[in-house]
Structures are given as C-alpha cells and as structure tokens.
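Hi,

Apologies if this is the wrong queue. I'm a grad student, and the batch job for Slipin family protein from Streptomyces ureilyticus produced an output file that my downstream script rejects. I'm not sure whether the problem is my script or the file. Here is the sequence I used:
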Amino acid sequence: MIEELVTAGLTLGSVGAVYVAAAARVVKQYERGVVLRLGKLRSEVRGPGFTMIVPFVDRLQKVNMQIVTMPVPGQEGITRDNVTVRVDAVVYFKVVDAADAVIRVEDYRFAVAQMAQTSLRSIIGKSELDDLLSNREKLNQGLELMIDSPAVEWGVSIDRVEIKDVSLPETMKRSMARQAEADRERRARVINADAELQASKKLAEAAKEMADTPSALQLRLLQTVVAVAAEKNSTLVLPFPVELLRFLERAQQPAPPSQEQPSMPSPELFAQLQKLLAQPQQQLAEAKEPSAGSSSESPSESSSELERPVPSTAEQSLREQLPPVPEPFDPDSGGSKSGQV
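Support response: The file is valid. Your script probably expects a header line. Output copied below for reference.
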C-alpha cells in the first residue's frame, strides 16, 4: 500500500514537472509574447519575464520590438529627365503592435522589404538626376511616407529611410566631370577678372597719389630695393631716378644776370657778317668805274647812285643777334662829304 502511494506520488511529481517544463516560457526584455489558444488570439500580450501557457493548447509567438535595419537592394530606374540610374537604400523600422504584426501580415519583414523596393522605384521615376544627387533629404522624407502608409496597418512604424548610393553610367560620369570642370574654370576666370579690376582701381588711386607727391615714388622704389636685397642670391641693378637728374640739372643752371651783357658771336655768325659787309663795298667799287655815258652826269646824280642798298630781313635778323660793329671807313664817301661841307 505504501509502495503504491509512493509510486503514485512519484508519478504525479514527474507529470507535474513535465507539465511545468512544457508550459513555462521566458520572454526577453526586447520581446513581446502573443498567445494563440486553439488558434484564437488572446487579448493579453505577454510582457518580458517568466510566463506560463497551457501546453498543447496555447502557442506563444515572440515578436522582436527592436529597431530593424534592412538594406534595400539596388533598383534600376529612369529618372524624369531620362537618365538611367541605380539606387540603393536602407530602411529603419520597428514593431509597435505585436498582435497586428502577427495577425495582419504573414511576414512583416518581407512585406516591408517589398514595399521599400517598389517605393524606391517610384521615387526614382518621379525625381530628376539633380534631385537624386543633391536634394536627398526631401527624397528620403517622401520615401519614408510612401513606405509608412501601408506599414501602419501591420503594426510596424518606419523610423527613417536613407538613400545610400546613386550609381551613374560611365558616359554620364564623364559628361558631368566635363561640366563641373568648365564651371570651375568659368568661376576662376571671373574671380581673376574681379581681382584685376580691383587691382587696377587701386593702382589708379596710387598713381594719383604719387603724382601729387613725387617723393612717394622714391619711397616705393626704396621699399622695393629693400625687399629684393633681402635675398642675397640675386644681383640688384638700381636705376638712377629721373627726378634726381632734373634736380641736378636745375642746380647746375647759372642764375639769371641782373643786366644783359652782349655775348660774343660764334664763328659761323661772324663769317656770315663779314660776307654781308663785303657786299656793299663791291657794289661801291663797281659804281666808281668810269663809263662813256656817265661823264656828263652831275655830281648829285653820281652821289645818288652810290647810295647803299636796303638790307634784307635775313641781314636784319643777323644784325640783331650780333653786338654792334663799327661801320667800315669809306674815303670816297668821306671826301664827298667833306667836299659837300
């Protein structure tokens, strides 16, 4: 009798141990447990910790509540400006309702992945190439809204969507490189032209200032000499300032005399003067020669023929340049004058 009781107790104990082992479940902190009893959803979602279910009646399904990182495979598409690109992205999502994630969708991970791929292709067709390359934040927001709209019914919340890479054809890469190079060259030329314009304005102002104060040019020259002389491996050729030459030239000029003194004529002017003075004497000698028709003329007519000719303008200019010279002595003219007296 006692042995039967002991055997029954051991049997019940073993059965109880098996039952507890079959019914005991442990839910982790980042998980939630959804219980289906005979295929029907239990309203209570099991939290983290130790929990019990009815063996062979209940089925506990654990749902991960962490944020899931899902890469989206590269999708090829044609943009709105007819450029073929290949774009890949990454989706961050998490389950907010464990019951909906189990009941409303068969596999919420696969569903989110397929929805991300279709939404990515749709966003590629609606966008231009420049938007895909530069305005990614706006595209990320649009892609997030497109994926999140159906995922809300599945108990899934899309945290964020990021476009990782945009692959372009090689021909497009080369054309874009040429465009960027031309744009940079244009900006460099514009910047260089602006610099030349500003420099020319500053040089014009400096030239005006140096024109008002010539000594500033000398100071600038000395500064340049000092800057060049700092390097001892070069030969310095110093030009002589023109202003200093003008200063020395003014210093060598004699002071203007108080009274004008007659200057000595040059040899050329003196020779020209002798020629001019010799011409009246020759004319006078030719007039003294006797002739047959002139013997009966009166002394008054002969004296009138012996008059000197009127000097020309050239002779007057030469006479003005030379100092006063005494007139040559003429004995005949003197004798005639004495006779007249």
